[in-house]
Design a protein that fits this description.
Layout lengths: L2 E6 L6 H11 L3 E7 L1 H6 L8 H9 L4 E7 L5 H7 L3 E2 L10 H25 L1
Parallel strand pairs: 1-2, 1-4, 2-3
């Protein structure tokens, strides 16, 4: 089964989050990351509820098979660790500060694909 990764920083779940999970499920098993408090603060967002409560909030959502900690706003470590086939995010990373995170994801996933293709060609 394919692995689909999505990440949340949220203290409140809304319809957009549920839509992301619903769409992600169409592509495979959904692993949801929760951005650590430290990463949120470095990114200039301040959690209003404790990290463990945010983890539990995501863990209870239908369609999420596993919840993990994302320790950085960039996805390099997540891609290396969980090797997702897809990363799903809302359209809010098409502009503003989140655009840099999208560029990181695209680059990281492209690097992974190129490495995979190189390995196949050497066989």
């Amino acid at each position: 089964m394919k692995i689909v990764y999505t990440c949340f920083t949220t203290d409140v779940i809304h319809e957009g989050h549920l839509n992301i999970i619903h769409e992600a499920q169409k592509y495979g098993e959904v692993i949801a990351g929760v951005l650590s408090d430290e990463a949120m603060i470095r990114y200039n967002q301040f959690p209003t509820i404790p990290f463990e409560k945010r983890m539990e909030l995501i863990r209870t959502l239908p369609g999420v098979s596993r919840v993990v900690i994302q320790k950085d706003v960039m996805y390099d470590e997540i891609v290396d660790t969980y090797r997702p086939d897809y990363i799903v995010h809302g359209d809010n990373w098409n502009y503003g500060p989140l655009k840099a995170i999208r560029a990181n994801v695209e680059s990281t996933m492209a690097d992974r694909l190129l490495t995979f293709l190189t390995l196949i060609m050497k066989m």
